[in-house]
Design goal:
Length: 211
């Protein structure tokens, strides 16, 4: 369990750009045997959501937000030896951000949680054109597709992405989430069959265990 004092210390270091201090906190948590799902959900996801809220309310600059994101992405690498040691279960997922969505750390964490559960997570990164995503899906033939959205104003781009994927793969399971949905927009997902809104990494894990 991550104590609140540890979280606050980490968040303060993250917002101040103190990369080495953030690194030391994460390394200590890993050395103490923290569950990786808790590390991702209660430290990385929680802190990045808070960073996003601060940016949306003009309390930090774009530079601050980009630095916090960069630090977080680098810290994810510390968990990879454990994540990739997980036995494979023969399932694949394609994870991507929608077109015009440049915040990719959430999607990257989703791919990592899938890997932790034995899946092969193909993470395509930020701002992926829907047509290119469909072409990659045709090549890989995944068991599900995950889409990440961080900025609510990009909801139209996400909807087009869903439409393009569903046109070619009407029976494909879609898992969709991200910070943008804290402001609404889940009705966009509900209009599509076999498309599920996933509000947290815990819910993601529950969903894939039933897949």
């Amino acid at each position: 369990m991550i104590e609140e004092s540890v979280y606050e210390k980490y968040l303060s270091a993250l917002l101040a750009g103190r990369r080495s201090e953030c690194h030391d906190i994460v390394q200590k948590l890993l050395a103490n045997g923290i569950d990786l799902k808790e590390l991702y959900g209660k430290l990385f996801q929680r802190s990045m959501y808070q960073v996003g809220e601060l940016w949306e309310n003009n309390r930090i600059t774009v530079a601050n937000e980009h630095l916090a994101t960069s630090i977080t992405e680098s810290l994810l690498n510390l968990a990879y030896p454990s994540i990739f040691a997980t036995e494979r279960i023969g399932k694949k997922a394609v994870i991507s951000c929608s077109a015009n969505e440049f915040h990719q750390v959430g999607g990257k964490m989703v791919a990592d949680i899938l890997e932790l559960n034995g899946w092969d997570g193909h993470f395509l990164g930020a701002n992926t054109p829907p047509e290119d995503m469909v072409q990659y899906i045709q090549e890989v033939k995944p068991d599900l597709v995950g889409l990440s959205l961080s900025i609510f104003s990009n909801i139209g781009h996400l909807e087009r992405c869903i439409d393009v994927v569903k046109t070619d793969f009407p029976n494909m399971d879609l898992l969709i989430g991200g910070q943008a949905f804290r402001w609404g927009g889940t009705d966009t997902i509900k209009r599509h069959s076999r498309a599920e809104y996933v509000p947290s990494l815990d819910e993601l894990e529950r969903s894939i265990k039933g897949a």
